[in-house]
Amino acid sequence: MPTRLLYMHTGVLCNRHAQLTQFMNSQQYKRLVSQCTTCDPDQRMKLVDTAILKYFQFVMLSHRWGEDEPSLRDIEGHLIYDMSAKEGFKKLQAFCLVAFKRDFLWAWSDTCCIDKDSSAELQEAIGSMFVWYRQSSLTIAYLSDVPATGSLQNSEWFRRGWTLQELLAPGTVLFYTQNWSLYKNLTSSNHKTDKVVLEELEGASGIESQFLTRFSPGTDDARSRLQWASLRRTTRPEDIAYSLFGIFNLHLPVLYGEPAEKALGRLLAEIISQSGDISVLDW
């Protein structure tokens, strides 16, 4: 799980200790303790696992960064629902309200849930992000440039580097348009398995449907995976390599400031080392 999560009932950012404190003060915890004192010892661990997994279900936000995005320092110690009406804050508040209305207690956004002043934490977050999206109960993809009646295929979201893993990793994704309405008002529980949306996703991303619905990270068919990313861009050039670490299930050092060519070179060298496939050099 991510180190920090937003608690939907209050709008407070919680580190791991605060998350556990919330759990131990909850009705779910009291009910769990009561059940564990009377159940068969063999059932106790199953009860604990089930209760914790249910309580700590979390929602991830996938989006394009815009103006006035709130940082960790901006929201630490504050209630996000009471904060500034600047554009980035409004987006975070709307995301949290959607998560809250869907009965989730916890949510995560890359803008404010990572301490980007800590190189160690940034390294951990980049190395873990694919897993966090994979483990999420829901990923909300916010398409800020798609009006309520527009098409997701026209969104810049499909041309950004980091959103590739945010499309592939989660099991469940819902797309929201500019005004925070569900895409085409489709109320299916997962847009990645909705036939209408899946066909559009194939066209917009250039990725076949079987990979969109059942993607496994690794170096198999590495050349195709690199081609998926070839038309995407990142604000920092070296991020075009870092944003692919999770897709290839690779754990490499994050060295901000290195040339993009060197970052890509390290990535390609590791892919070839693990797969033996030199065709990736022609991606």
From TrEMBL:
InterPro entries: HET. Residues 58-146 form the Heterokaryon incompatibility domain. This is Heterokaryon incompatibility domain-containing protein. It comes from Pisolithus tinctorius Marx 270. It holds the Pfam family HET.
